[in-house]
Amino acid sequence: MKIEYDNEAKQLKFEVLTKVAKYAFDGTLEENIDAMPYDIIPGPLPTFRCCVYREREIIRERVVSARGGNLPGQGDSNVIGVLPAACEGCPISRFRVTDNCQHCLAQKCREACPFGAISITPKGAYIDPQKCRECGRCAAACPYNAISDTLRPCVRSCPVKAIKEDQYKRTVIDYSACISCGACMKNCPFGAITDRSQIVDIIKAMQSGIRVVACFAPAAEGHFGTATAGMIKSALKKVGFADALEVSLGADAVAFHEAMELKEALKEDRKMTTSCCPAFVELIKKHYPQVKDLMSHTISPMTAAARYLRLQDPQTKVVFVGPCVAKKNEIQQVPDTADYVLTFEELAALFNAREIDVEAEPESEQDGSRAGKGFAKSGGVSGAVAQVFQEEKVDLPFTCAKCNGIQECKKALAVLKAGRLAENFVEGMACEGGCVSGPAGIAGSLKLKKNRAAILAKADHRSVSENIQITHDFSKVKME
Questions:
Q1: What is the Rg, in whole angstroms, of the alpha carbon atoms belonging to the chain?
Q2: Which of 98, 159, 254, 422 is most deeply buried (CB count within 10 A of its CB)?
Q3: How far, in whole angstroms, is CA 338 from its chain's centroid?
């Protein structure tokens, strides 16, 4: 299949990742690093910025991140960083007077400004960027909507106000507030915010002779055309992984354990939140610590799958594959989980570098139940928990606040913090639509929905409980 993104920024990132992966496989990465910006931007005419020199600098910075290096201010433990050369397309001043200004006599914009930032000129109102404090009162007061609000997309999309400006008005990330959800990365129209890649380290591990196994998220089906989980497993082995496992199997184990945990909470009249989404977990830890004790102790499906694999071979190196960049943060915090994280964007680059057509790969056995695969969508976790209640004949009805996106998560957690939440259970998903809509995905929403519907219609209706107790024995896997 041919990978084509819906915007040029992601396509450029894909091209850089592909070249880095190809050279890493060939063992020639170091000798080709300096040439890559010139290979991708041959010039002499620019294609997307003011000059080829800036374009090449953007590529150079992308190569740094693709190799796992630090961008300015990023630090070793932070997974998301800003490309300085690319982050210069947004307007410096948020509020701007447009040609729609009618030179009105009332001058309501000037009267509304408490900072004296607005003056009236023969050409109309003017906002002094040195005095403006971006309160927005002028825009609200203008009767002709002549003042535009060009808030930076990264700032607008960040749900926790982690995007700041330095003294030169450049975008910086406040990592003390950041939850690594990737919303800024997904919404930046210049592709100036990116995630640090482990693609080179993963290729080196595969080539070292160590047993490296890929475990891929339930969200994978639909992102690689009509390729099923079985086809993706075959493709991963062809790339160089010793084996591959569906994380939907880990999701089955999580659904069962979390159902049992919820059962006890309901008996004790306690409320509980899910713990599968790492960005949701970070949101609780950093911004709603008052409800931290109500969070489920059950590990994530990624960690369950990794621990299951290591029971079979303790020396196995596990690579989680998914559309989530927050997973790169999770592996630094949770013990005995995956060793590396590979996003779908990075996996697509691996396939491209090795000239692998996923849709042409042979079908192989699938691991997870349909309920486990459902973890990829909003409402899927609580749906799987409800299915376990039914299978295990747990007669304890519960209600669930299904939070679709961080904004809904924040509202539910605020009500929970205040002690006024009506529901017993809170399912938190940082990405609207669920993991399938993660910031490092491939397919657009319409194509993804169509692909997944066709694939999941053929999925096995196996029991969650039987899948982890009989088909796959999780009895020795530590689930907390």
A1: 24
A2: 254
A3: 17
Q: What is the pLDDT of residues 62-121, one digit of tens each?
A: 999 999 999 999 988 999 999 999 987 677 788 999 999 999 999 999 999 999 999 999
Rounded distance between C-alpha atoms, residue 232 and residue 347, angstroms: 11
As a whole number of angstroms, the distance between CA 101 and CA 99 comes to: 5
Provide the 3-class DSSP secondary structure of residue 337.
Answer: coil
Tokens representing residue 39 in the block: 């290979």
**Interacting residues of 268 by C-beta distance below 8 A, sequence separation 6+:** none
* β-pair partners for 116: none
* Amino acid of residue 216: F
User: Is 246 in contact with 367 (CB distance < 8 Å)?
Assistant: yes
The answer to whether residue 478 sits within a structural domain is no
Residues 204 and 297 in one domain: yes
Residue 479 domain flag: no
Instruction: Write out the two tokens for 356.
Output: 């692998």
Token readout for 270 is: 């306690």
Alpha carbon 366 to its chain's center: 25
Domain identity same for 250 and 327 = yes
Mean pLDDT estimate for the chain: 93
Specify the CATH number for the domain of residue 139: 3.30.70.20
Q: Alpha carbon of 93 to those of 125, 129, 161: distances in Å?
A: 15, 6, 18
Tally the domains of the chain.
4
